[in-house]
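Input chain follows. Return structure tokens only.
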Amino acid sequence: MTATSPAEGTLSPAPHANDSSFANVYEELRWRGLMQVTTDEAALEEFLSTPGGTFYCGFDPTAPSLHLGNLVQILVMRRLQLAGLHPLALVGGSTGLVGDPRQTAERVLNSKEVVGEWVAKLRGQLEQFLDLEGSNRAVFVNNLDWTAPMSAIDFLRDVGKHFRVGTMIKKDIVASRLNSDAGISYTEFSYQVLQGMDYLELFRRHGCRLQTGGSDQWGNLTSGTELIRKVEGQTAHALGTPLITNSDGTKFGKSEGNAIWLDASMCSPYRMYQFWLNTADADVVDRLKVFTFLTREQIEEYGRAVEERPFAREAQKRLAFEVTSLVHGEEAAHQVIEAAGALFGGKDLSALDPEILGGVLDELPSAEVSPEATVVDALVAAGFAESKTAARRFVNDGAASVNNERVTDAESLLSGEAPLRSGEQEAVYLVSRGKKNKAKVTVRG
């Protein structure tokens, strides 16, 4: 394997396949660091090593898009599906109406109409990652199908009676909230009962024997295994993946305080690519294990590259390419690389895909000017010059450009140039000072 840089344009995404160097998918998940806690390791390994078993993972529609934390679970599902197991993807139309307890305070409850729209959006996103054909094709389920017809009395008698309050309040998240100023409502307190009922229903309807999720969901996961044991007298499994954190202690999955969403309209392919490209050397090998289908041999070679030539950032480039391809497609990943190369390489921007270019521009520092603004005004507005005098000097020295074209007339109107993007009341330009200082400047009005 050669650690080819995506910038060379010859890279293709790793095929979706489990690594044959492992005896089974259980061993591979453990090597990739995806197993923090399980109910019974020996029994779980036997279950995962036998094709044909059914498992599920749930996703609540608390936003119109999935995010990188969800991607961890999605890739676990895909690896298990590749191992011959049957995936059930649950999008929680009912649990999404209640809200999973958070560490800090109560969730804002969304309307039934909004939750219904988000259910459809999340299902559409999940469909692009899982195989929808074949003998072990993914099946989508919605817990609203079995909770909506149930009366409150039936819920309390048939499900609630199997839960003990003493046990429920010992769950980490519940205990944390009970000891906080915010407290916890009965609505969120009952969430673990609803999730336990989901597992029981899927056990009955589909023979489901495994639920996967984040380790922070462990109390909710085991509520289902316990309910199945009490009601059906059967054993079921739970697998909790570790929460992904950065080596410096900061929270993973956010850039400048904003979540990295899988929806391109909420997080552009360029922003997605740059997020992964900025991965620290100390984290990149672990990220390759969790978020790519690269083999153990390939990842170990990238690990050596990090140690021997960290300046080349080969592992980061491969990671960024793989995940961007996975989420947005190979073509978009190559276009992002091409756009970044053109933007910072001073090349012609007119041939770039407008949406990709727009995503790149939106990540740059921005400024607004009036239609009467000159190039000098634009340089000052973008923060590239402290004064108009300094800005004129940059132009005279050949250090200023608009849309990667050098400017020679400091007093020329910015609106006199052809915009990269335009609308009824605005026109967008790339204004640069030197090779590295670039900004999106919008002429508005």
